[in-house]
Design goal:
The protein contains seven helices and 15 strands. It is α+β, with helices and mostly antiparallel strands. It holds the Pfam family DUF1990.
């Protein structure tokens, strides 16, 4: 029989990776969390550790930190702002906004808590995607060790560059957490004669696979019901130069003159537009309750921006189904308009319309929009949107036109084959 002591000792990296998976597997919900699989680059593990003389037990050290983490923060560097939960204690599910000097503020949620440790997970909008854990251990009657370790991927290419290339983010994190350890040693213990020990390692994650449950999507959509528009609709004026106006049109094809043909171009395009299948799913995916009426439908748009996954909320405010005269020709039109909700990076409205000229049989797809840049709290995203947002916006519309034409004609061809 083999002796357990004969088994090879686990490396520090193995222990760190095992703890990461324990935190990941222990999540009761991923709603609102920004997990490492959604980030960019390798999973970076960083550890900050300090041993110090202390009459308090490890339980008492963690208890003091959870009651008032700001007592151990250098105010010039960072602070914890409680956004949900009791002000004088910590519990699983509580949420904080960690404010760090520079553009590094990040929302987090408490995901694990016991007598000697607690762990936080990054929430949507954080510059990173991962976990951070604070743990105390008794070394002897008068000595304690505090360890802070994090596992995270970057929120996107820009954040990755500031961490791995420019190293600005890495230096800011190192300064913040080494100072935190030092202040714990000074204000709970008798200080430390040693420096904070800092180490890091990296791991490659498997390609992300979406495991978002139907229940989570339903919960996200239900939350939108209480969300309002992110601008005063009355403030819009077509004559106001602060608003951008865009119009795009493409020819889908031609069918028989007269009313729309059964299973023809107009009705096929209408179905694709109603199902929100015309955006490129590699860039934008629409989530909505298919059983809900189109008028008033809330939609969550899952978008990729510079490699970062962001979510935008909109609501359908108008459904168009009419026969009109245009250039002395009778036209059948169908479509809808949606308007931006709180949290969207833009403010405005976009209309998608399928039009058939009943005299010629020509079918068009039109996109019309008015917009201007909204409030983007994250400075990195704000700069990125200022830099390339307009190009992303116009490319989105142009790709929608091309994809709608292709999907419509492909489905018509399959039906006829």
């Amino acid at each position: 029989m083999s002796n357990p002591s004969d088994a090879p000792a686990q490396s520090d990296s193995d222990v760190a990776l095992r703890r990461y998976h324990e935190l990941l597997d222990g999540l009761s919900t991923t709603d609102g969390l920004q997990l490492p699989s959604r980030g960019y680059g390798k999973l970076i593990h960083r550890q900050y550790s300090l041993e110090f003389q202390c009459n308090d037990t490890a339980c008492e050290v963690i208890g003091a930190i959870t009651r008032d983490p700001n007592r151990y923060c250098n105010e010039a560097m960072a602070s914890f702002e409680k956004v949900s939960g009791a002000s004088d204690s910590m519990a699983v599910g509580d949420e904080y906004l960690i404010r760090i000097s520079g553009p590094w503020n990040g929302p987090v949620r408490v995901i694990d808590l016991d007598e000697t440790s607690f762990a936080l997970a990054t929430r949507d909008g954080h510059l990173e995607a991962g976990f951070i854990e604070f743990k105390a251990a008794d070394l002897n009657e008068h000595q304690c060790r505090l360890t802070i370790q994090s596992w995270a991927t970057s929120g996107g290419p820009l954040v990755w560059a500031t961490y791995s290339v420019l190293r600005v983010t890495k230096l800011a994190q190192t300064a913040m957490w080494t100072e935190f350890c030092t202040l714990v040693a000074e204000r709970i213990g008798d200080g430390s004669e040693h420096d904070v020990q800092v180490s890091d390692s990296s791991f490659s994650l498997p390609k992300a696979v979406s495991n978002e449950s139907e229940e989570q999507s339903t919960s996200q959509l239900a939350d939108l019901q209480e969300r309002g528009f992110n601008y005063e609709v009355e403030s819009y004026s077509p004559d106001d130069p602060s608003w951008r106006h865009d119009s795009y049109v493409t020819t889908v094809g031609t069918e028989s003159p007269g009313p729309p043909d059964d299973a023809g171009l107009f009705l096929t395009a209408k179905r694709i537009v109603s199902e929100y299948r015309f955006p490129d799913p590699r860039r934008v995916k629409g989530k909505f309750d298919q059983a809900a009426p189109l008028d008033g439908r809330n939609m969550l748009l899952d978008a990729q921006f510079l490699g970062i996954r962001v979510q935008f909320a909109v609501r359908v405010v108008e459904v168009i189904d009419r026969q009109v005269q245009r250039d002395e020709a009778t036209c059948q039109e169908w479509g809808y308009a949606y308007r931006t909700l709180d949290g969207h990076w833009e403010v405005g409205q976009m209309t998608f319309l399928v039009r058939k000229n009943c005299e010629t049989g020509e079918v068009l797809f039109l996109i019309n929009a008015y917009s201007r840049t909204g409030r983007i709290p994250n400075p990195f995203y704000r700069f990125g949107f200022w830099l390339v947002g307009r190009k992303v916006q116009t490319n989105f519309a142009k790709r929608c036109l091309k994809r709608l034409v292709k999907l419509t004609n492909d489905e018509i061809a399959q039906t006829r084959s």
